[in-house]
Amino acid sequence: MEKRGERNKKKLMVVTNRKICQEGLLKRLEEVFVAYRQGIYLEDFLIEGLVLREKDLDQEVYLKLLGDVQELCQAYEIDIYAHKYWKSAIELGIKNIHMPLYDLLDLARDGEKYQSFIDHFDRIGVSTHSLDEASQAQRLGASHIFAGHIFPTDCKKGLDPRGLDFLDKMCKTSKLPVYAIGGIGPDRVDQVLERGAQGVAVMSGLMRDGKFGHKACGPARSMDKSDQGSLGSGQIGASDKAYFMSEALKEARKAYAMKETPIGAVVVYDGQIVGRGFNQVELTGDPTQHAEMVAIQEAAKALGRWRLYDCQMYVTMEPCLMCAGAIENSRIKSLYIGASHKKNHLVGKHNDFKLEVYKDRKIDYEFGILEKEASKILTDFFKERREEKSK
């Protein structure tokens, strides 16, 4: 179902190419998704899906990568499309597939196998390069097509682009939604949409340099108050605390998907989330990139000030000493915590010290907001890590 505010956004399909990602595919995708969520770029776009188009990999290697990217997409609520290896998609429970037309034609020769293929997938995309191919894709049960390449692109060196007139004919002739692909930069999006394209599919502009749809500056995206019940009324009720902690848990799940310790945090100002963060120590190689630190930095940037005296923080796990210091120094007014540390001698001393800091600085604090959920994600994470080590 289309969400509020999405109707006027330009539709985008992300297409991967790990060979042009300077720092690795997973890290590149993480950067794109974080920037998309925060409104740093792609603010005018709605990502309708990601096609994992690593067609040079054999099926076993592709299956492993598909599983890793699936976890990342789930964390950011992005629909994933497997490419070509439909059996791998079925094995992982993925319901979207993008197929080269010749592979789809070959599959259709086996009626029983093709029927199981059609029955499993909700959405089937097909790459096409002519009106005849578009017609064949429709007969074979495609839900949409990619048409290209429209403009010159490094991915199709030596091949002439098909151009806007070709796209115009495809959009007018095909009964399927058409996504234009090939050499499409931000300055060309409106041109293809004016020809009737449903949206655009972009590879190089996102995989190589990430400048597609980039905005040099801008505040972090805050949430619409109309989505937040009684928020902003001056009183923070139990339902509001649960709501914001659930948002912090969403951040923790992103960390889980990246095999980071799953802790998430949000900073709230006047009933709106102005800062989000999850543990990114392994991702960034920076030991200070805890969820609380990231959320505070984002909130300070969004509000244009470092003093957050009128803000609240929700964090899924009791802050460490470093983060407690950052909470104190940023003057955060109230702190709401999900799970607490289990007491041992050293942790107990640290916790007592932190509570003294909160009291001394008059920081209101409360434990136990969605404690069961906050504890479970940590328990599950460390259990999974132990099982991996024992294999």
Automatic annotation (TrEMBL):
Domain of life: Bacteria
Residue ranges of every copy of the CMP/dCMP-type deaminase domain listed in the record: 239-350
Entry's cofactor comment: Binds 1 zinc ion per subunit.
Presence of keyword tRNA processing: yes
RNA-binding keyword on record: no
Catalytic-site annotation from UniProt: E292 (proton donor)
Entry function: Catalyzes the deamination of adenosine to inosine at the wobble position 34 of tRNA(Arg2).
Family that this chain belongs to: Belongs to the cytidine and deoxycytidylate deaminase family. ADAT2 subfamily.
Necessary cofactors: Zn(2+)
PROSITE patterns per UniProt: CYT_DCMP_DEAMINASES_1 (PS00903), CYT_DCMP_DEAMINASES_2 (PS51747)
GO biological process, one term: tRNA wobble adenosine to inosine editing
Subunit structure: Homodimer.
Annotated residues for binding of Zn(2+): H290, C320, C323
Organism, as annotated: Peptostreptococcus stomatis DSM 17678
Protein name per the record: tRNA-specific adenosine deaminase
Gene3D superfamilies: Aldolase class I, Cytidine Deaminase, domain 2
Enzyme class: hydrolase
UniProt keywords, alphabetically: Hydrolase, Metal-binding, tRNA processing, Zinc
Enzyme Commission (EC) number: 3.5.4.33
Any GO molecular function: tRNA-specific adenosine-34 deaminase activity
Reactions catalysed according to its record: adenosine(34) in tRNA + H2O + H(+) = inosine(34) in tRNA + NH4(+)
